[in-house]
Specification:
The complex is a heterodimer of chains A (320) and B (82). With 320 residues, chain A is mainly alpha-helical. Chain A contains 13 helices and 6 strands. The chains are: A mainly alpha (320), B mainly alpha (82).
Chain lengths: 320, 82
């Protein structure tokens, strides 16, 4: 499944780039001095590759049809919301509300287990609370991934680590069968990273970010690895929390009057010293001094590796 | 990138993780174990409300701690010598 996801994304991303260019769907790479225009919405290649791989998994490996259908519908809905946001920006309040719809297939198809393992408590039955958690988790994770992606390769790099962490957790739990779908996601993200890494030839767009975030959320719920994955996603969740708390609620990047970072004449990025600028992970990384864009993304990837290892420690604390 | 540049940020992640694990321990091993030493008709209600209030307090404590940590880190590092 890893190879299917990898090859499908590797072959379709250039097609999406060409199509976006033809349709004039391009974003400005604001962190470069020359401000190049880069094809947007190419993350849809990852979405379609994961859907394609999931269907293959259902046919070849007889992966549970209910889980496959829930995943396909969940990421398709998230991608559709992302496309709508890429083409005509959605309001900062409407986007998270709409992404809750992506959680509906998981609940309606019953592709979850209400038995949740919690450290120091053991396995608890959350028949009523769990569906509410699912409705909250999908938009939170999808938008947290979306907020973490202002730099070339940040989404594809950090989400590749999260997918790998998911596979390792499931293998350690002896659920190799459930690691099939995360393998497809890992393959797709690694292939996409080749095009999205610094200097980016393609942008994933909100369509790609939201669908990858929804995929990670859905696979976490289906794999019953909620707490370790929550720990693995500390950098993403912390970034979203700091950003939202510092701007006082839901705001889109374009709505922010003060920027957390600024581009220097030598092409490096630095943290702004304005007290009204939002606090983000990138601003925290740059607080110690200017860095190149690829060094910021490298820092984000290292932090995700560390949090994924802490997720592993959490898994052992939980005694599973 | 200078080696060791990420050390303090990784430290921040570890502190957040420790606070989550410690907070979960407090919630499930201390707050959830609260019982009343006297018998009363309102006993279960008092215990339930106390658990909910204390659990929420731990949650708010987490958020406050993370917010303070990020702020202290940012402004301490931003006031770097030229």
């Amino acid at each position: 499944m890893f190879c299917t996801g990898f090859m499908a994304t590797f072959l379709t991303t250039p097609l999406f780039a060409r199509m976006s260019k033809k349709l004039g769907i391009a974003g400005i790479d604001v962190h470069k001095i020359e401000k190049p225009r880069v094809p947007e919405m190419c993350g849809l290649a990852v979405t379609l590759s994961v859907i394609f791989s999931a269907v293959i998994a259902a046919m070849v490996f007889h992966a549970e049809a209910r889980s496959v259908l829930a995943l396909v519908l969940c990421i398709s809905i998230a991608a559709a919301i992302g496309v709508a946001d890429d083409l005509g920006p959605l309001s900062s309040r409407l986007k998270p509300v709409l992404t809750t719809i992506a959680a509906v297939p998981i609940i309606m198809l019953g592709a979850y287990s209400p038995y949740m393992a919690i450290p120091f408590l053991g396995t608890t039955r959350l028949t009523i609370v769990y569906p509410v958690l699912v409705v909250a988790a999908i938009p939170v994770l999808a938008n947290a991934i979306n907020m973490m992606n202002p730099f070339n390769g940040a989404m594809s790099g950090t989400c590749s680590i999260l997918s790998l962490a998911m596979i390792i957790y499931l293998l350690l739990l002896g659920r190799s069968y459930e690691a099939i779908l995360p393998s497809a996601l890992l393959g797709s993200l690694l292939a996409f990273h080749r095009y999205n890494k610094y200097p980016a030839k393609v942008f994933s767009g909100n369509a790609g970010d939201l669908s990858v975030g929804a995929a990670i959320g859905a696979l976490t719920i289906m794999g019953r690895i909620e707490v370790p994955m929550l720990v693995a996603m500390i950098p993403h969740i912390a970034n979203a929390f700091y950003l939202l708390s510092s701007v006082g609620g839901l705001r889109e990047r374009r709505e922010m009057l003060f920027r957390p970072t600024r581009l220097l004449d030598d092409g490096r990025l630095d943290a702004t010293e304005d007290s009204k600028a939002p606090i983000t992970l990138s601003r925290l990384i740059l607080a110690e001094g200017p860095l190149r864009e690829n060094e910021i993304v490298y820092s984000m990837i290292v932090m995700t590796v560390v949090s994924s290892l802490l997720g592993l420690v959490t898994l052992f604390i939980m005694g599973r | 990138m200078p080696p060791g540049r990420l050390t303090s940020l990784i430290g921040l992640i570890v502190v957040v993780w420790v606070s989550i694990v410690f907070g979960l321990f407090i919630v499930f091993r201390v707050i959830f174990e609260i019982t009343l030493s006297w018998q009363s008709a309102f006993g279960p209600i008092i215990v339930g409300v106390s658990r909910a209030v204390l659990g929420t307090a731990v949650g708010l404590g987490w958020l406050l701690l993370w917010w303070k940590l990020a702020n202290v880190y940012l402004w301490k590092k931003l006031r770097r010598p030229e």
